[in-house]
Amino acid sequence: MTEQQQHQQQHKESSCVVNFSTSALPKEKKEGEVFAKMVEVTQQSESGFRGFGFSDSLLKTLADKGYSEPSPIQKAAFPELMSGRDLVGQAQTGTGKTAAFAIPLLERLKTGQKIPQVLVLAPTRELAMQVADSFKAYAAGNPRLKVTAIYGGTDFRSQISAFRRGVDVVVGTPGRVMDHMRQGTIDTSGLTSLVLDEADEMLRMGFIDDVEWILEKLPEERQVILFSATMPQEIRRISKRYLNNPVEVTIQTKDRESKRIRQRAIVVPISHKLEALQRVLDVYGGEGVIIFARTKAITLTVFETLEAGGHQVAVLNGDVPQNQRERTVERLRSGFVNILVATDVAARGLDVERIGLVVNYDMPFDSEAYVHRIGRTGRAGRTGEAVVFVTPREKRFIRNLERATSQLIELVEVPDNKVINQERLDRLRKQLGEAAKTERFHANEDVLLRKLMQEVAMEFELTSEQIALAALELAVGPNPLLRQDDDDWIQNTQRIDRHRKERSERRERHNGRPARFPDENMQRYRVAVGHRDRVKPGNLVGAITGETGLQGGMIGRIQIFDNYSLVDLPAGMPEDVFNSLRSLRVMNRELQIAIDS
Question: How far is CA 74 from the centre of its chain?
């Protein structure tokens, strides 16, 4: 499917509700009065990019690239941004939000300026490059406009040289933008527009303080545009503080749009995750796969296992140099790599249309991370698959993910040999049928192939059926077609899970109340001190708060047993904090903290 066909298909299938609200009230309105309206954007609305005040050269560029119909977020944002209004936009990835701000900002640029007029802040290098490429693509009709991306891991001097030659649009990560501002190598005095792209991701990655530092240093008279997939309280605070009477645009995607991604959850013990992953790839894997892991060490373990199994796989984590990261993404996009194993941070802003499956090898720290992970598939009108591995203890968090996506997550089992073998046979049958009906690219070679079959049949006295079977065996390769390794552990896991559920139900009936689990957004940890060590809750609270800086009120339930204790702490604890707690001593014993599973 061409880019134009994908774009048109996306708008045929989507029907979205766009919410507009504004705090900029007419003078005759009483103070504090709320002014809002709902607009239903449907296929019957006025189509095309005309009517927004864009120049003929920009309209021609969009037409040349196959864009004939603006997406809902673009229809909502274009008039406001062309008029210079501040804007807060909430929309999921893949809705066309980059074009929603890039196109009107390009149209409003003044020619002949040597210093930046537009600054876009992005959470990652990958997203910065992607946004900069989009600006360059939309500016193809005006080659005098200069766009540059700045981010860490690249030569600082080359970026300074670009500024000296003249730049109209700068797209950068907060850290690198701050570096240039501190050293005075970027002139922000002529800045007219600032964009905060994926603001919730900048919050999650700890960049919000940097963003506020930048905002404080920029000219007071400027247009500010904030886009975010979700709206945490901290992002709301920033929008109220730094934006001037912004119009708010919220894209609410209806059921058909959200259901493009089929979501499944698989309960699997940690010890069997790698084998379960290989089985999932066997059944659900297709043209492009991203596997999300929580740490760099896990990405390497998964990568090495899959590579040893013959998969075309690459890894993307914080240790991968920038130039190699760019090559890896391009190899994934072009199909030379089929599976990418990545951490959340390394994969931010990754936009590859051919991704058909996202695997959450580790449960994400929160629902927002899950939404961003699965948003890597189901793009440009395509369908996608998402699988999340959960331990028996993590099953209760599935409801949080369902609320975040407004969609049911189907609980399925690890594919056993029977399921995998049937999938392999069905796939081979389909490929064989398609190959038989499809004309060869080199059709003139058919005669040679038929002659070769006849010669082989005569020389070795073979029937047509024997030759066809030999050809199939060549296509299958040296490895067995059917999987025959031991899969008893799958049945054992299912049996243990059923017993665990039955015990929980019996406990509830016996106690007359549900078994107590950690509260939402809390994780239960096991520590190696208990009654035998004369430990008290106060000892644990004091040690943990002293080491981590957590407030005592942030520590949840503490249960002390003879040889160990259970402590509920905020979910998503950074790895370095976790490691420091592991060797912490309480009552002269190491905590040896570990997730209770």
Answer: 21
| Strand 16-22 with 35-41, pairing | antiparallel
Indicate if 27 and 165 belong to the same structural domain.
Answer: yes
Last residue of a domain, one of 240, 256, 272: 256
- Determine the structural domain holding residue 429 and report its residue range: 419-473
Q: Tell whether 67 and 101 lie within a shared domain.
A: yes
- CATH code assigned at 17: 3.40.50.300
Residue type, 532: R
311 and 194 within one domain = no
Of the candidates 256, 282, 313, which is a domain's last residue?
256
- DSSP 8-state symbol, 115: S
Whether 502 maps to a domain, the answer reads: no
* Residue in 253, 216, 231 with CA at minimum distance from that of residue 89: 231
Give 389's strand partners: 266
Q: CA-CA distance, 35 to 515, in Å (whole number)? A: 47
Residue 509 lies in a domain: no
DSSP symbol at 84: T
Mapping DSSP onto H, E and C, the string for 244-267 reads CCCEEEEEEECHHHHCCEEEEEEE
- The answer to the question of residue 504 being in a domain is no
Q: Residue 191 corresponds to which tokens in the numbers above? A: 């800045």
Together in a domain, 155 and 239: yes
Please count the structural domains in the chain: 4
* Separation of alpha carbons 83 and 254, rounded Å: 29
What are residue 119's DSSP bridge partners?
170, 194
Question: Which pLDDT tens digits describe the chain residue by residue (597 residues)?
Answer: 434 444 444 444 443 444 544 444 333 333 333 333 333 333 333 338 888 889 888 988 888 776 778 888 899 999 999 999 999 998 766 667 888 999 999 999 987 788 999 999 998 887 888 889 889 989 888 888 899 999 887 888 999 999 999 999 999 999 999 999 999 999 999 999 999 998 888 887 778 889 999 999 999 889 999 998 878 888 889 999 999 999 998 876 544 444 578 899 999 888 889 999 999 998 888 789 999 998 889 999 999 999 998 899 999 988 888 788 888 888 998 889 999 999 877 776 677 888 899 999 988 766 667 887 888 887 656 788 999 999 887 777 787 788 777 788 888 888 888 888 888 888 888 888 887 777 766 767 778 888 888 888 888 888 888 888 888 888 777 777 777 777 777 777 766 666 565 555 555 445 444 445 566 567 888 888 888 888 888 788 878 877 766 666 677 788 888 888 888 887 767 666 777 777 788 887 888 888 876
State how far the alpha carbon of 121 is from the alpha carbons of 7, 199, 245, 251, in Å.
26, 9, 21, 22
Tokens describing residue 123: 């959470």
Sign for the pseudo-dihedral over CA of 534, 538, 541, 546: negative
- pTM of full prediction above 0.70: no
Is 559 inside any structural domain?
yes
Q: Residue count of the chain, please give it.
A: 597
CA–CA distance, 533 with 511 (Å, rounded to integer) = 29
What is the distance in angstroms between the CA of the first residue and the CA of the last residue of the chain?
Answer: 45
How is residue 163 written in tokens? 């500024």
